[in-house]
């Protein structure tokens, strides 16, 4: 079928509003809500409420035999959507994270000169329904497909490719028995192999000397399929795929193309920082590129199916993927979550994920759930097997896993922590009374977060108990890879307890990386480590943050906490020193990394979360902090490091693997100048060094756009990084004055903000305060070419300007639905 652009000329309103507003998809309606300290979603969504929303668009179907069948694809709508065409309900979908297709052929006007109208109703009003920021509305792309009487369904081509043996299964719709399928495989735009025209929907091809796909060598092939009748092409379909094999065993670990692979993993949520949940292709590609640059070679979905754009980016940049179906089964974690529809919809939504993922070589594993306490009882264990079998039925080429929190399963075995409507109702009543609520009222999501925060790294050791083994072993027996959430205490035991078990550290504390990675390297059955998290994210507000005086250190944290506050990469894509620490542990950096805890809070020390092992910054610019004492961390694989301040030694300390790759220097007197860290071998010989410089007295706005040209398609994005610096470009982390952004030309400011986890500012406003000297603006192109001019101003600084060329795009024209593929 032919794929058409379908993101322009939409209108949007909240259900209770009368006025429609012009928008371009994708669109996160939750960002348009006013944050409310008293909303039922609370800290889960960063105090954003949900709501009911309406989207509509007028469109025409071309007068052509290639438009006799019309299908709409929605990649993601949060949530409970209903789709109407010309006033008649054509379909809908309840889960907010799986894509779905609606055949609208019988609902469109036969008179092709008439405009059709689509109306999409979205209901995200029941709160809370998630443990994190969900977004609302049509937050992922929508596509229109048109085809003739005979057509290839856009989601029904499956390519199985191992060792050069290619099986192409083409599912098509036709009443004609004389249809044949013709397949071509290309590599770097050159024809590699062509099939003999056959009447079968499945074709076997062989590619000699195939270029295999892996994270290190992400080689992609292009498949072009034609549907023929008497030599005439009736329909065509094109897709990318990679050739690679996967195997897992306790003795040989994870092998990709026969070679052992250890997964340097990051868990990620689905939001795109200051864009909210809006899933732009450019945003997803950028996120994956940054994760790759930060040294990760794998991502785990947390805890719902990833977008198509993420998977495509992982295919092209080279990252392995564990895609995950659900965070809830039939036992809820919040009052209105997926558990209410799980029994009816899990097979459909599991199928949607697997069909979406099938042709993406980056996907090496499917996860059927995250921290589902059902796995402690007989019904849940049977359900584990049913789901795993369903996934294997849909795709027998990839292993199945599940992420089980060993600590929480142990408590669930004792009947503690499982969500209870009675407890929640009682809690809600007590919240409204002056009496202090008893702590034992927490259940579900709140219980999970409370206990994990309180127990910290002890959770890993708790997993050693026989009770925990009993609470997890039967469910783990039903999957191919056992995903341990915060269960590293069992890693060494399992070769004896469960000699055939393959393990992945599916969720771990970043501060445990050194000891975890040592075990990953040692034990073949332990195939990788996935830290929580790679990127910071919206919601679960403050749970992963370091807190300082004036910020309440409770759980859940109160308004105006907005972000999780952890993540080794912040929501703007800035890699903190903790990301560099990972690379030191992984052996990807051979120089020392310096991180300085915020000096201006001295003598107060941060209260650190288990999900953030350091709040150190790569900065020695702390204005007006002379005389205060600094805590300096140096990350190095060398046996020892020596720290110098303005040429004077501050002492030497052990580092390297024996000291978890970290040397901590306390009570360093702050004075402006140069802070230098020198890595040394055991004999004291210098190996390498790094330094931080203090900023000078000058102040300027340093502004840089990550792209200098875009396409006029209403989708391309320009990320503009803004920082307060001196004339040498050294960031002033304590500079705190309002930044204003104005955009002229064929583009719109669609996001502006910072990585501040504790703020009342809106990402939709054109003025923001920086966080630690930095902010970020995101500009989206319009559909006409020209030059975008972005003006950035702040009091006391020379204005800055960025110009971005917008080139004409053949894929989109204003008020037309045109072919994009």
TrEMBL record:
Residues 701-803 form the Glycoside hydrolase family domain. Residues 253-458 form the Glycoside hydrolase family 2 catalytic domain. Transmembrane segments: none annotated. It comes from the Bacteria. Keywords: Glycosidase, Hydrolase. Residues 627-687 form the DUF4982 domain. InterPro entries: Beta-gal/glucu_dom_sf, Beta-mannosidase-like_N2, DUF4982, Galactose-bd-like_sf, GH, GH2_Domain-Containing, Glyco_hydro2_dom5, Glyco_hydro_2. GO terms for molecular function: hydrolase activity, hydrolyzing O-glycosyl compounds. One of its GO terms (biological process) is carbohydrate metabolic process. It holds the Pfam family Glyco_hydro_2_N2. Residues 425-444 are annotated as: Disordered. This is Glycosyl hydrolase family 2.
